[in-house]
Specification:
Layout: H1 27-33, E1 39-40, H2 53-66, H3 68-71, H4 81-92, E2 103-107, H5 108-120, E3 126-130, H6 135-143, E4 147-151, E5 153-154, E6 157-158, H7 160-172, E7 177-182, H8 196-208, E8 212-216, E9 240-245, E10 256-260, H9 263-277, H10 282-294, H11 297-322, E11 327-328, E12 336-340, H12 347-356, E13 359-360, E14 362-363, E15 376-380, H13 386-410
Parallel strand pairs: 1-13, 3-4, 3-7, 7-8, 8-9
Antiparallel strand pairs: 2-10, 5-6, 9-10, 11-12, 12-15, 14-15
Helix pairs in contact: 2-10, 5-6, 5-9, 11-13
The structure holds pyridoxal-5'-phosphate.
Amino acid sequence: MTNGNSLDPWYDSYAQRTAGLSASEVRALFAVASRPEVVSLAGGMPYVSALPRELVTGSIDRVMTEDAAMALQYGGGQGLRSLREHIVDVMSLEGIRASAEDVVVTTGSQHALDLVTRLFIDPGDVVLAESPSYVGAIGVFRSYQAETVHVTTDEHGLVPEALREAIANLRTQGKRIKFLYTIPNFHNPAGVTMSRERRIEVLDICRSNGILVLEDNPYGLLWFDEPAPQAIRSIDDEGVVYLGSFSKTLAPGFRVGWALAPHAIREKLVLANESAVLAPNSFGQYVVNAYLDAADWKGQVDTFRGLYAERRDAMMAALGEFLPDLSWTKPNGGFFVWLTLPDSLDSKGMLPRAVKELVAYTPGTAFYADGRGGGNIRLSFCYPTPDQIRVGVKRLATVINDELELLETFGHSTRPSAVTESRSTVVAPPPNIS
Ligand SMILES: Cc1ncc(COP(=O)(O)O)c(C=O)c1O
């Protein structure tokens, strides 16, 4: 053993790609934030208590009675055929026409993200992403040593002109752009949805530049006021890899998600899946398959939609009541609101004081690969009840107002500039925060 340090004797042995794998400095705070007296507006955990237990036990009983030998055994690397056929039906709700042949079942869509990145990224390659983007995806891209470049995003999603400019700039610098990662529906963390016109334009730009689109859509069926526009994959089946998941419409504990990919990519994904996990979770797949066979799963999705819509409304009302001078996004589905702080407040620096006031949120810095986000906060409304949301936002308003008072007294910004923020400090919070 050589050249370690007193904390980790293997320090010098790790592969370079692990440089991006550091624990979040806010992790300890989130441990405190999980205490019952703290209202957490930080986590992205689905409210699984709204899933009737008998729906799940019925499916498990059926699997153990009818398919135990297969469900307890290794399966194929592509996933259970009948589940893939159900997945094709699920995707048809968002306008996608596909064959079960082109679906690969994965250990949650997070694993699909990892596999696609593994297939396409060499160190130094560029991934384009919205601004901000999903913390779990940024972490995957970093672990394969990709450079994530954020593209300007507004309330209608990615801005096509900004995408064109980013591509041109990167090409001038000789960079290789491998794919565009986008969450078009009820974005995590921004809460916005890409308009139909933009979907067509963004796809067009990517197609004409030979850039693959990685469409990540775990929240699409959880709409509130009106359904989201049809999936980007519904417009093009050659240039898009589409990711889906049962984590939000059923439960994340099964860890069942999928990728739908053009044929050649699909073949490589199966091989990569086999090399990583041999086969996706057989038992989880059989239970989800039985659930989709026998339970009123669309009715259950409606139940979730109603529940989350009520919580979104509670959050909108509380923000309007307690923080009327700030601005925030108004999600038409999903779990998240993106709040913009008054100039000069720093979301990361303010978090310890918020936790002291018994409210937690995720600082915007978690959702950028380049140190930005200090002026934003992600608030989630999926897990706390409407009453808790109101209390949480009220506490947050107290923290923000106190910070502003401090600022008035001492008269300087608390926000570090993005350039002084080291890239390695922008690291993933624990999984229940994603
Ligand atoms: C945008 C996005 N993609 C992917 C995932 C991963 O989901 P899972 O692996 O549970 O399917 C999440 C989870 O929060 C997410 O928000």
